[in-house]
Write a structure and sequence with these properties.
- This protein is α/β, with parallel strands linked by helices.
- The protein has two domains: 296 residues, Aminopeptidase; 111 residues, Alpha-Beta Plaits (2-Layer Sandwich).
- 36% of the residues lie in helices and 22% in strands.
- The protein contains 13 helices and 15 strands.
- Strands 1, 2, 3, 4, 5, 6, 13, 14 and 15 form a nine-stranded mixed sheet that branches. A four-stranded antiparallel sheet has the order 9-11-7-12, with helices on one face. A two-stranded antiparallel ribbon has the order 8-10.
- α3 links the parallel β3 and β4.
- The longest helix has 21 residues.
- The radius of gyration is 23 Å and the shape is globular.
- The N and C termini lie close together (12 Å).
- Bound molecules: glyoxylic acid (GLV) and manganese (II) ion (2 copies).
- One manganese (II) ion (MN) binds next to loops.
Protein backbone atom coordinates (compact mmCIF):
# COMPACT_ATOMS: atom_id res chain seq x y z
CA UNK A 1 0.00 0.00 0.00
CA UNK A 2 1.47 3.34 -0.92
CA UNK A 3 0.76 6.56 0.85
CA UNK A 4 1.68 8.76 -2.09
CA UNK A 5 -0.76 11.30 -3.45
CA UNK A 6 -0.61 13.21 -6.71
CA UNK A 7 -0.56 16.63 -5.20
CA UNK A 8 2.77 16.58 -3.37
CA UNK A 9 1.36 19.04 -0.82
CA UNK A 10 3.80 21.32 0.93
CA UNK A 11 3.49 20.50 4.65
CA UNK A 12 3.46 23.99 6.12
CA UNK A 13 1.24 25.38 3.37
CA UNK A 14 -1.30 22.59 3.82
CA UNK A 15 -1.29 23.11 7.61
CA UNK A 16 -1.85 26.84 7.18
CA UNK A 17 -4.64 26.27 4.67
CA UNK A 18 -6.47 23.84 6.99
CA UNK A 19 -6.01 26.16 9.97
CA UNK A 20 -7.35 29.12 7.97
CA UNK A 21 -10.43 27.22 6.78
CA UNK A 22 -11.24 25.90 10.24
CA UNK A 23 -10.62 29.22 12.04
CA UNK A 24 -13.98 30.96 11.42
CA UNK A 25 -16.15 27.90 12.18
CA UNK A 26 -18.04 28.41 15.43
CA UNK A 27 -16.01 31.44 16.50
CA UNK A 28 -18.00 33.94 18.52
CA UNK A 29 -17.50 37.43 17.06
CA UNK A 30 -17.51 39.24 20.40
CA UNK A 31 -15.40 36.92 22.57
CA UNK A 32 -13.12 35.58 19.83
CA UNK A 33 -13.56 32.17 21.47
CA UNK A 34 -15.08 29.01 20.00
CA UNK A 35 -18.58 27.71 20.71
CA UNK A 36 -18.49 24.41 18.89
CA UNK A 37 -20.99 22.37 20.85
CA UNK A 38 -22.18 18.86 20.04
CA UNK A 39 -24.87 18.53 17.40
CA UNK A 40 -25.15 22.29 16.69
CA UNK A 41 -24.64 24.12 13.40
CA UNK A 42 -21.02 24.89 14.31
CA UNK A 43 -20.45 21.17 14.97
CA UNK A 44 -21.96 20.32 11.58
CA UNK A 45 -19.64 22.86 9.89
CA UNK A 46 -16.61 21.28 11.59
CA UNK A 47 -17.78 17.81 10.53
CA UNK A 48 -18.18 18.98 6.93
CA UNK A 49 -14.66 20.41 7.07
CA UNK A 50 -13.31 17.04 8.33
CA UNK A 51 -15.06 15.17 5.55
CA UNK A 52 -13.67 17.56 2.91
CA UNK A 53 -10.13 17.07 4.24
CA UNK A 54 -10.56 13.30 4.14
CA UNK A 55 -11.97 13.27 0.63
CA UNK A 56 -9.39 15.75 -0.69
CA UNK A 57 -6.75 13.19 0.30
CA UNK A 58 -8.57 10.23 -1.20
CA UNK A 59 -9.33 8.75 2.24
CA UNK A 60 -12.48 6.74 2.86
CA UNK A 61 -14.74 8.76 5.16
CA UNK A 62 -17.29 7.23 7.52
CA UNK A 63 -19.25 8.34 10.55
CA UNK A 64 -19.78 5.58 13.09
CA UNK A 65 -23.05 5.02 14.96
CA UNK A 66 -21.79 7.08 17.92
CA UNK A 67 -21.16 10.11 15.73
CA UNK A 68 -17.36 9.82 15.54
CA UNK A 69 -15.85 10.54 12.12
CA UNK A 70 -13.12 8.36 10.61
CA UNK A 71 -10.92 8.85 7.55
CA UNK A 72 -9.12 5.73 6.34
CA UNK A 73 -6.09 5.06 4.21
CA UNK A 74 -6.18 1.32 3.58
CA UNK A 75 -8.80 -1.12 4.79
CA UNK A 76 -9.38 -1.02 8.56
CA UNK A 77 -10.91 -4.48 8.24
CA UNK A 78 -7.36 -5.83 7.90
CA UNK A 79 -6.85 -4.96 11.57
CA UNK A 80 -3.86 -3.63 13.53
CA UNK A 81 -4.70 -0.14 12.25
CA UNK A 82 -2.75 2.87 13.46
CA UNK A 83 -5.12 5.72 14.32
CA UNK A 84 -4.48 9.34 15.19
CA UNK A 85 -6.81 12.30 15.76
CA UNK A 86 -8.61 14.21 18.47
CA UNK A 87 -11.80 16.33 18.59
CA UNK A 88 -13.18 19.50 16.99
CA UNK A 89 -15.77 20.55 19.59
CA UNK A 90 -14.94 23.17 22.22
CA UNK A 91 -15.72 24.41 25.70
CA UNK A 92 -17.66 27.71 25.90
CA UNK A 93 -15.39 30.35 24.38
CA UNK A 94 -12.59 27.83 24.01
CA UNK A 95 -9.31 28.31 22.20
CA UNK A 96 -8.43 27.24 18.68
CA UNK A 97 -5.99 24.48 19.62
CA UNK A 98 -7.60 22.12 22.16
CA UNK A 99 -8.70 19.31 19.85
CA UNK A 100 -8.28 20.87 16.38
CA UNK A 101 -4.47 20.88 16.68
CA UNK A 102 -4.56 17.08 16.87
CA UNK A 103 -6.77 16.71 13.81
CA UNK A 104 -5.06 19.29 11.61
CA UNK A 105 -1.68 17.82 12.61
CA UNK A 106 -2.97 14.34 11.71
CA UNK A 107 -3.87 15.36 8.15
CA UNK A 108 -0.61 17.36 7.87
CA UNK A 109 1.41 14.37 9.13
CA UNK A 110 -0.21 12.19 6.46
CA UNK A 111 0.74 14.81 3.83
CA UNK A 112 4.29 14.78 5.21
CA UNK A 113 4.49 10.97 5.04
CA UNK A 114 3.24 11.02 1.47
CA UNK A 115 5.92 13.55 0.61
CA UNK A 116 8.47 11.22 2.18
CA UNK A 117 7.08 8.46 -0.05
CA UNK A 118 6.27 6.33 3.00
CA UNK A 119 5.02 2.80 2.28
CA UNK A 120 2.21 1.97 4.70
CA UNK A 121 2.11 -1.64 5.84
CA UNK A 122 -0.90 -1.06 8.11
CA UNK A 123 -4.18 0.81 7.66
CA UNK A 124 -4.00 4.42 8.87
CA UNK A 125 -7.01 6.18 10.38
CA UNK A 126 -7.71 9.78 11.34
CA UNK A 127 -10.54 10.26 13.82
CA UNK A 128 -12.69 13.15 15.03
CA UNK A 129 -14.33 12.06 18.30
CA UNK A 130 -17.75 13.62 18.92
CA UNK A 131 -18.60 15.72 21.97
CA UNK A 132 -15.26 15.48 23.78
CA UNK A 133 -15.70 18.55 25.97
CA UNK A 134 -19.23 17.81 27.11
CA UNK A 135 -19.99 21.54 26.96
CA UNK A 136 -23.62 21.03 25.97
CA UNK A 137 -24.74 17.91 27.86
CA UNK A 138 -22.35 18.06 30.81
CA UNK A 139 -20.54 14.76 30.24
CA UNK A 140 -17.12 14.78 28.56
CA UNK A 141 -15.92 12.30 25.88
CA UNK A 142 -19.42 11.07 24.94
CA UNK A 143 -18.33 9.72 21.52
CA UNK A 144 -15.38 7.73 22.83
CA UNK A 145 -17.18 6.65 26.03
CA UNK A 146 -20.07 5.18 24.00
CA UNK A 147 -17.68 3.41 21.62
CA UNK A 148 -15.63 1.95 24.48
CA UNK A 149 -18.74 0.86 26.40
CA UNK A 150 -18.04 3.33 29.21
CA UNK A 151 -21.44 5.02 28.72
CA UNK A 152 -24.60 3.07 27.97
CA UNK A 153 -27.23 4.08 25.46
CA UNK A 154 -29.73 4.48 28.29
CA UNK A 155 -27.40 6.79 30.22
CA UNK A 156 -26.67 8.83 27.09
CA UNK A 157 -30.40 9.13 26.34
CA UNK A 158 -30.90 10.75 29.73
CA UNK A 159 -28.44 13.60 29.02
CA UNK A 160 -30.18 16.99 28.70
CA UNK A 161 -28.78 20.40 27.72
CA UNK A 162 -29.47 23.71 29.50
CA UNK A 163 -32.41 24.41 27.17
CA UNK A 164 -34.10 21.08 27.98
CA UNK A 165 -33.17 19.33 24.71
CA UNK A 166 -32.17 15.72 25.26
CA UNK A 167 -29.14 14.20 23.57
CA UNK A 168 -31.29 11.87 21.42
CA UNK A 169 -33.42 14.79 20.18
CA UNK A 170 -30.28 16.82 19.42
CA UNK A 171 -28.77 13.89 17.48
CA UNK A 172 -31.99 13.41 15.54
CA UNK A 173 -32.17 17.11 14.67
CA UNK A 174 -28.63 16.81 13.31
CA UNK A 175 -29.65 13.83 11.15
CA UNK A 176 -28.24 10.98 13.28
CA UNK A 177 -30.00 7.95 14.73
CA UNK A 178 -29.86 8.08 18.54
CA UNK A 179 -31.09 4.49 18.84
CA UNK A 180 -27.99 3.20 17.06
CA UNK A 181 -25.53 4.44 19.69
CA UNK A 182 -23.68 1.99 21.92
CA UNK A 183 -20.51 -0.05 22.39
CA UNK A 184 -18.50 -0.73 19.24
CA UNK A 185 -15.96 -3.41 20.22
CA UNK A 186 -15.53 -4.62 16.61
CA UNK A 187 -14.33 -1.17 15.60
CA UNK A 188 -11.91 -0.92 18.52
CA UNK A 189 -10.60 -4.44 17.86
CA UNK A 190 -9.33 -3.25 14.47
CA UNK A 191 -7.08 -0.64 16.08
CA UNK A 192 -3.54 -1.66 17.00
CA UNK A 193 -2.51 1.76 18.35
CA UNK A 194 -4.11 5.16 18.91
CA UNK A 195 -1.93 8.27 19.23
CA UNK A 196 -3.56 11.62 20.06
CA UNK A 197 -1.56 14.81 19.58
CA UNK A 198 -2.78 17.67 21.79
CA UNK A 199 -1.73 21.17 22.76
CA UNK A 200 -0.23 21.11 26.25
CA UNK A 201 -2.62 22.58 28.81
CA UNK A 202 0.08 23.85 31.11
CA UNK A 203 3.64 25.14 30.90
CA UNK A 204 5.83 22.09 31.54
CA UNK A 205 7.26 22.06 28.01
CA UNK A 206 7.73 25.81 28.06
CA UNK A 207 9.74 25.43 31.25
CA UNK A 208 11.94 22.61 29.91
CA UNK A 209 12.33 24.29 26.52
CA UNK A 210 10.93 21.37 24.50
CA UNK A 211 8.48 21.74 21.61
CA UNK A 212 7.02 18.24 22.04
CA UNK A 213 6.48 15.82 24.93
CA UNK A 214 4.95 12.40 25.59
CA UNK A 215 2.09 11.78 28.05
CA UNK A 216 2.67 9.44 30.96
CA UNK A 217 -0.71 9.59 32.69
CA UNK A 218 -4.00 11.45 33.12
CA UNK A 219 -5.05 12.37 36.62
CA UNK A 220 -8.33 10.92 37.90
CA UNK A 221 -11.05 13.56 37.62
CA UNK A 222 -14.77 14.11 37.87
CA UNK A 223 -17.70 16.53 37.92
CA UNK A 224 -20.13 16.94 40.80
CA UNK A 225 -23.38 18.96 40.72
CA UNK A 226 -24.27 20.83 43.91
CA UNK A 227 -27.92 21.89 44.24
CA UNK A 228 -28.47 24.36 47.07
CA UNK A 229 -32.24 24.90 47.53
CA UNK A 230 -33.58 27.77 49.64
CA UNK A 231 -36.54 30.06 49.38
CA UNK A 232 -37.12 32.81 46.79
CA UNK A 233 -38.08 36.12 48.35
CA UNK A 234 -37.99 39.89 47.89
CA UNK A 235 -34.49 41.39 48.16
CA UNK A 236 -35.87 44.68 49.44
CA UNK A 237 -38.27 43.48 52.11
CA UNK A 238 -37.01 40.17 53.51
CA UNK A 239 -35.07 40.66 56.71
CA UNK A 240 -31.65 38.99 56.65
CA UNK A 241 -32.61 36.80 59.58
CA UNK A 242 -35.68 35.55 57.71
CA UNK A 243 -33.87 34.45 54.57
CA UNK A 244 -33.01 30.95 53.40
CA UNK A 245 -30.51 32.14 50.82
CA UNK A 246 -28.71 29.33 48.92
CA UNK A 247 -26.15 31.79 47.55
CA UNK A 248 -24.45 31.99 50.95
CA UNK A 249 -23.53 28.29 51.39
CA UNK A 250 -22.68 28.15 47.69
CA UNK A 251 -20.18 31.01 48.09
CA UNK A 252 -18.67 29.41 51.21
CA UNK A 253 -18.39 26.10 49.36
CA UNK A 254 -16.46 27.73 46.52
CA UNK A 255 -13.95 28.95 49.10
CA UNK A 256 -13.86 25.55 50.82
CA UNK A 257 -13.08 23.85 47.49
CA UNK A 258 -10.17 26.17 46.93
CA UNK A 259 -8.90 25.64 50.47
CA UNK A 260 -9.18 21.82 50.44
CA UNK A 261 -7.56 21.53 47.02
CA UNK A 262 -4.73 23.79 48.13
CA UNK A 263 -4.09 21.73 51.27
CA UNK A 264 -4.02 18.45 49.30
CA UNK A 265 -2.03 19.64 46.26
CA UNK A 266 -5.10 18.89 44.11
CA UNK A 267 -7.40 21.01 41.92
CA UNK A 268 -11.01 21.97 42.54
CA UNK A 269 -13.01 24.48 40.52
CA UNK A 270 -16.56 25.79 40.50
CA UNK A 271 -16.58 27.11 36.91
CA UNK A 272 -20.27 26.91 36.11
CA UNK A 273 -23.24 28.13 38.11
CA UNK A 274 -26.96 28.50 37.46
CA UNK A 275 -29.24 30.58 39.67
CA UNK A 276 -33.04 30.56 39.93
CA UNK A 277 -34.96 32.74 39.51
CA UNK A 278 -31.83 34.75 38.60
CA UNK A 279 -33.37 38.13 39.42
CA UNK A 280 -31.25 41.00 40.65
CA UNK A 281 -33.86 41.93 43.29
CA UNK A 282 -34.71 38.40 44.44
CA UNK A 283 -33.19 36.11 47.04
CA UNK A 284 -32.54 32.97 44.94
CA UNK A 285 -34.50 29.77 45.40
CA UNK A 286 -31.80 27.57 43.84
CA UNK A 287 -28.08 27.84 43.25
CA UNK A 288 -26.69 24.98 41.21
CA UNK A 289 -22.91 24.86 40.94
CA UNK A 290 -20.69 22.33 39.22
CA UNK A 291 -17.48 21.22 40.92
CA UNK A 292 -14.65 19.94 38.70
CA UNK A 293 -11.95 18.25 40.77
CA UNK A 294 -8.74 16.44 39.85
CA UNK A 295 -5.74 15.02 41.69
CA UNK A 296 -2.69 12.90 40.99
CA UNK A 297 -4.23 9.85 42.68
CA UNK A 298 -7.70 8.57 43.52
CA UNK A 299 -7.17 8.68 47.30
CA UNK A 300 -6.36 12.39 47.25
CA UNK A 301 -9.26 13.13 44.93
CA UNK A 302 -11.69 11.22 47.19
CA UNK A 303 -10.40 13.04 50.26
CA UNK A 304 -10.75 16.48 48.64
CA UNK A 305 -14.24 15.92 47.25
CA UNK A 306 -15.43 14.39 50.54
CA UNK A 307 -14.08 17.37 52.50
CA UNK A 308 -15.76 19.85 50.15
CA UNK A 309 -19.08 18.03 50.46
CA UNK A 310 -18.80 17.89 54.25
CA UNK A 311 -18.14 21.62 54.41
CA UNK A 312 -21.00 22.36 52.00
CA UNK A 313 -23.45 20.35 54.14
CA UNK A 314 -22.41 22.27 57.21
CA UNK A 315 -22.83 25.67 55.46
CA UNK A 316 -26.17 24.63 53.97
CA UNK A 317 -27.43 23.46 57.37
CA UNK A 318 -26.50 26.77 58.97
CA UNK A 319 -28.34 28.71 56.24
CA UNK A 320 -31.48 26.55 56.39
CA UNK A 321 -30.84 25.40 52.84
CA UNK A 322 -31.22 21.87 51.43
CA UNK A 323 -28.28 20.37 49.55
CA UNK A 324 -28.13 17.57 46.96
CA UNK A 325 -24.79 16.46 45.57
CA UNK A 326 -24.73 14.29 42.45
CA UNK A 327 -21.58 12.90 40.84
CA UNK A 328 -22.22 13.48 37.14
CA UNK A 329 -19.04 11.86 35.84
CA UNK A 330 -15.84 10.24 36.97
CA UNK A 331 -12.78 9.13 35.06
CA UNK A 332 -10.22 7.00 36.94
CA UNK A 333 -6.49 7.54 36.61
CA UNK A 334 -5.05 6.60 33.21
CA UNK A 335 -1.51 5.28 32.97
CA UNK A 336 -0.68 5.13 29.27
CA UNK A 337 0.64 1.79 28.04
CA UNK A 338 4.36 1.67 28.77
CA UNK A 339 5.32 -0.35 25.69
CA UNK A 340 3.76 2.17 23.27
CA UNK A 341 5.00 5.13 25.27
CA UNK A 342 8.54 3.70 25.20
CA UNK A 343 8.21 3.07 21.48
CA UNK A 344 7.27 6.74 20.94
CA UNK A 345 10.21 7.83 23.08
CA UNK A 346 12.53 5.63 21.03
CA UNK A 347 11.21 6.93 17.69
CA UNK A 348 11.32 10.57 18.74
CA UNK A 349 14.64 10.16 20.55
CA UNK A 350 16.17 8.70 17.38
CA UNK A 351 14.69 11.50 15.27
CA UNK A 352 16.16 14.21 17.47
CA UNK A 353 19.44 12.48 18.30
CA UNK A 354 21.26 14.69 15.77
CA UNK A 355 19.72 17.77 17.37
CA UNK A 356 20.50 17.50 21.03
CA UNK A 357 20.45 13.87 22.05
CA UNK A 358 18.25 14.76 25.02
CA UNK A 359 15.33 12.43 25.73
CA UNK A 360 11.83 13.68 24.94
CA UNK A 361 10.08 14.78 28.16
CA UNK A 362 7.38 12.52 29.57
CA UNK A 363 4.64 14.31 31.53
CA UNK A 364 1.34 13.70 33.28
CA UNK A 365 -1.70 15.92 32.75
CA UNK A 366 -4.81 16.88 34.66
CA UNK A 367 -6.84 17.28 31.46
CA UNK A 368 -9.18 14.57 30.21
CA UNK A 369 -8.90 13.18 26.67
CA UNK A 370 -10.51 10.61 24.38
CA UNK A 371 -7.12 8.87 24.48
CA UNK A 372 -7.70 8.29 28.19
CA UNK A 373 -11.09 6.71 27.55
CA UNK A 374 -9.73 4.48 24.78
CA UNK A 375 -6.70 3.42 26.77
CA UNK A 376 -8.66 0.67 28.56
CA UNK A 377 -9.46 -0.98 25.20
CA UNK A 378 -6.60 -0.09 22.85
CA UNK A 379 -2.84 0.60 23.21
CA UNK A 380 -2.90 4.38 23.42
CA UNK A 381 -0.39 7.22 23.67
CA UNK A 382 -0.36 11.02 23.52
CA UNK A 383 1.98 13.70 22.24
CA UNK A 384 1.85 17.21 23.69
CA UNK A 385 2.88 20.37 21.83
CA UNK A 386 4.28 23.30 23.81
CA UNK A 387 1.84 26.06 24.75
CA UNK A 388 3.79 29.22 25.62
CA UNK A 389 0.91 30.78 27.53
CA UNK A 390 0.11 27.56 29.38
CA UNK A 391 -3.50 28.76 29.12
CA UNK A 392 -6.21 26.45 27.79
CA UNK A 393 -10.01 26.43 27.55
CA UNK A 394 -9.62 30.10 26.63
CA UNK A 395 -8.83 32.05 23.45
CA UNK A 396 -5.34 32.70 24.93
CA UNK A 397 -4.42 29.04 24.25
CA UNK A 398 -1.52 28.98 21.77
CA UNK A 399 1.22 27.09 19.97
CA UNK A 400 3.74 28.88 17.75
CA UNK A 401 3.97 28.05 14.04
CA UNK A 402 7.38 26.55 14.66
CA UNK A 403 6.07 24.29 17.41
CA UNK A 404 3.03 23.28 15.32
CA UNK A 405 5.52 22.19 12.63
CA UNK A 406 7.56 20.30 15.26
CA UNK A 407 4.36 18.58 16.37
CA UNK A 408 3.52 17.53 12.81
CA UNK A 409 7.06 16.24 12.25
CA UNK A 410 6.94 14.27 15.53
CA UNK A 411 3.54 12.79 14.68
CA UNK A 412 4.73 11.89 11.17
CA UNK A 413 7.81 10.17 12.66
CA UNK A 414 5.61 8.25 15.09
CA UNK A 415 3.09 7.19 12.43
CA UNK A 416 5.91 6.17 10.11
CA UNK A 417 7.50 4.13 12.91
CA UNK A 418 4.21 2.42 13.79
CA UNK A 419 2.47 2.03 10.41
CA UNK A 420 5.27 1.77 7.87
CA UNK A 421 7.38 -1.05 9.24
C1 LIG B 1 -11.30 18.31 28.92
O1 LIG B 1 -10.60 19.09 28.29
C2 LIG B 1 -11.23 18.28 30.35
O2 LIG B 1 -10.16 17.96 30.88
O3 LIG B 1 -12.22 18.65 31.00
MN1 LIG C 1 -10.46 20.53 26.56
MN1 LIG D 1 -8.95 18.32 24.11
Amino acid sequence: MTGRNDEGRDGEASFREMWRDLAPLGRHPASGGYRRYAWTGADADCRAWFREQAEARGLVHETDRNGNQWAWLGDPGEGDAVVTGSHLDSVPDGGAFDGPLGIVSAFAALDELRRRGAEFTKPLGIVNFGDEEGARFGLACVGSRLTAGRLTREEAHRLVDAGGTTLPRAMEAAGYDPDAIGPDPERLARIGAFVELHVEQGRSLDRTGDPVGIASAIWPHGRWRYDFRGEANHAGTTLLADRRDPMLPYAETVLAARREAGLAGALATFGKVAVEPNGVNAVPSLVRGWLDSRAADAGTLDAVTAAVERAAREYAGRAGVALDVVRESFTPVVEFQHALRDELARILGAARAEDRGRPVPVLATGAGHDAGILSASVPTAMLFVRNPTGVSHSPAEHATEQDRAAGVAALADVLEGLACR
